[in-house]
Design brief:
Length: 221
């Protein structure tokens, strides 16, 4: 039996130095003529689809149509690549060591559960040189609702493996709520900006991913 880990990306595995936010703002300015469109909007733990709608509501007073969603995200990807190339990404403390440790275990499989659309996730993971560990997962292109994309990541894991347990790792209250909705164990890290007390309803709260191997050993042996 296999333990499936599903990792959030931004704030959990890496920091992209605001590349996504600035790319979103550039797209909205190009398509709708409004600069700084995401000012005042919190990005943490939200999906790309949710953020598009929040920006549309804040600036245009309505949600985006399906065609506008598609046009927005199509325009977003090349700008995200430009931003990430220019700024780079920061791999967070303990991430590489934790992923290497998990990957060496025959009873563990690793995926993502991210608010990024898949192509955006690949841009960030490739820039961070973390892409080799993540062949599947749940993405914002599966659903704009985080619980549904986590569920899709779990389904993809179950299609390939007999799962003993699913562990979602994230840095926001949204990650915790989505994991709970799917019946998964959830571990939170404080590397994304949420303080430990806001994440206390997770099964474990870590200051960094460096704590993962010891937690896994205690829980699974």
């Amino acid at each position: 039996m296999t333990v499936l880990y599903l990792f959030d990306i931004d704030g959990t595995l890496l920091h992209a130095h605001g590349s996504g936010r600035d790319a979103f703002d550039a797209v909205f300015a190009a398509l709708h003529g409004i600069a700084g469109a995401s000012e005042g909007i919190s990005y943490g733990g939200k999906t790309d689809g949710q953020l598009v709608d929040e920006i549309f509501v804040a600036r245009l007073g309505r949600t985006a149509t399906p065609a506008e969603h598609t046009a927005f995200l199509d325009a977003y990807l090349p700008l995200l690549r430009e931003q990430v190339t220019a700024r780079g990404v920061q791999v967070l403390e303990g991430v590489i060591e934790a992923l290497e440790w998990l990957a060496a275990r025959p009873d563990v499989v690793i995926g993502v559960a991210t608010g990024n659309i898949r192509a955006g996730a690949e841009v960030k993971l490739t820039a961070a040189k973390l892409d080799r560990w993540f062949a599947f997962g749940g993405y914002a292109c599966d659903s704009p609702l985080r619980a549904e994309l986590v569920a899709r990541g779990i389904e993809r894991g179950r299609d390939k493996y007999q799962l003993r347990e699913v562990v979602v790792v994230g840095d926001t209250v949204h990650d915790i709520a989505a994991a709970r909705a799917c019946g998964a164990t959830v571990c939170a890290v404080t590397t994304g900006g949420y303080p430990a007390e806001k994440l206390a309803h997770a099964d474990a709260v870590w200051s960094s991913m460096a704590e993962l191997p010891a937690w896994h050993a205690r829980r699974f042996g």
